[in-house]
């Protein structure tokens, strides 16, 4: 179609020109200038519906990774995701772990267990419910955007209290048969990171893949790590209505863990190491097949089917004796003590089908979205085996396993949501999800010299309901409110035997509760971006261990049961203001300031610890950034403040228990910059500029036990080139 004719028709229909068309006649039209404004880069929001998924009325964020100045070579989470208000991050790089866990609203951030963690829309954690730990996330150099939805995500994605985080990888470049990008980064503590990707489109086939290699000597002694991660995707575009493809993700790593520290050891030397023989591997494999069908402009159908086969192997001087237990050579035997070996094999299959339909109700367009998720996971856990007295990565054992357990989880969950557009600027979105869950645990475990058998099968069904409201007083602003039920099922560890005189409550229930939000968000031209709101979360039936008395013998015994409820409430605020764009919207330069702030009051409301703060829940998290940008140069200075917290529910300041104790507040400064020139770019920066000694986690097991220090001051320098 002729482009000039399109413009002529458009102007005529809009009433900008009234012209009687005559054959072979030339017309001179007045100049028409169309002004558009680029939105603020830092953080955006998901639309009412996208790819058959409803987001209307929900608190959502979307981060375009390429727009950020950050140390992406090591996935520096506080720089990349730090603009999410209230994001709590477990920083474990100094112990070899680089896939830092995250959580919001005072929830447990360890390995992101409270989050529904996805890549390109499918789950990438070990087990959706039974072992929801994340050992793999894609390298940030390969990620196009990160989508996050708070607790109201429970209806569309799953029941987790923390909500959804979805890492969307880059795709095949449009209208290019081939593109190659290479990025090389070096830094302190032996950092070398090489990221390389290829992609393109040829006729109806699109492809994209990357390979990353990273090696680090580590901030502390005995914290070396090396890893290879890769991804490949090929898609066949049959027509404008139908495409389908396959993806494969892999991770291969080898991590040395330097152990945890006591309080006195940490304050004497945060770089100290108490272990020299601890190793971990966590190979990850995910295969996904998908199809997207759009029979009309108002309906979509998508299918994703995933098979995850992964594992974790661990050989270590275990937690016996705590962080203060030395790992030295026994003067009598002339050798080290035997290490403990553990091997876990994780498998799951998940298929998710989604369908959406736009339809007219009254004079407004409404949207229906529904689907079903089916998953089955099987998990083999072997541990407590007596390993060698050597120092290398050796998984051989002497004798039998201390525990040998088989777990499985079957899940079926249909779900529906509907946007009812009552007026042109007001929507109401009810939703419903039904979950069937079957968990099993079989095997044996040696506890205090006695072998205990377990054979547990639990079946249950849950219904989750929610409601979202959204009012758009302006084109680019909205008031939103929602309330959605959530739950966290009993996980595998809570079904394990844990003591000769201990019991598991046969009436043990899943944790359940709800999330609610009320907020105001929007953008003003290209100089202001904001989202300010409050939340209230009820987290009931928390599981823990307490003492009970046998009614017949009068003897005390420990029992794992539902012991407490907690309430998490507070405010979350994100504001970004571009000062230069405010004075001149057409300026080629930008100078912005952003503030990501949260206040969280998370306390137990029942049980032994009523009135105590929930463990790991910092009251105040505040991140402030200054951004200067031109067409070629961009630089960001970020201030990070995280308030104090406690390691456990008792809120004790110090304890012989390695997980219990005070976690002090800390402030960290990060600076990053990049300079782009056509197809080349240089990036550099410094993390923890002031060399602050701090920690975010206490642990009773790996990678501890004890305090896990965060990384001190570090620098990096990188170079990127694009060839096409």
Protein described:
The structure is a single chain. This protein is mostly beta strands and 724 residues long. It has a 24-stranded mixed β-sheet that branches. The longest helix has 11 residues, at 3-13. The protein starts with a helix and ends with a strand.
Produce the secondary structure layout:
Blueprint: H1 3-13, E1 49-50, E2 53-54, E3 60-64, H2 77-80, E4 88-89, E5 102-103, E6 116-119, E7 122-123, E8 143-149, E9 164-169, E10 179-187, E11 191-202, E12 205-216, E13 225-237, E14 242-257, H3 263-268, E15 278-281, E16 284-296, E17 299-316, E18 340-361, E19 364-386, E20 403-423, E21 426-447, E22 450-474, E23 477-488, E24 502-504, E25 511-524, E26 528-549, E27 556-578, H4 579-583, E28 590-604, E29 620-629, E30 633-642, E31 645-646, E32 662-663, E33 666-677, E34 680-687, E35 695-699, E36 706-709, E37 714-723
Parallel strand pairs: 6-9, 24-27
Antiparallel strand pairs: 1-2, 3-8, 4-5, 6-7, 8-9, 10-11, 10-37, 11-12, 12-13, 13-14, 14-15, 14-16, 15-17, 16-17, 17-18, 18-19, 19-20, 20-21, 21-22, 22-23, 23-25, 25-26, 26-27, 27-28, 28-29, 29-30, 30-33, 31-32, 33-34, 34-37, 35-36
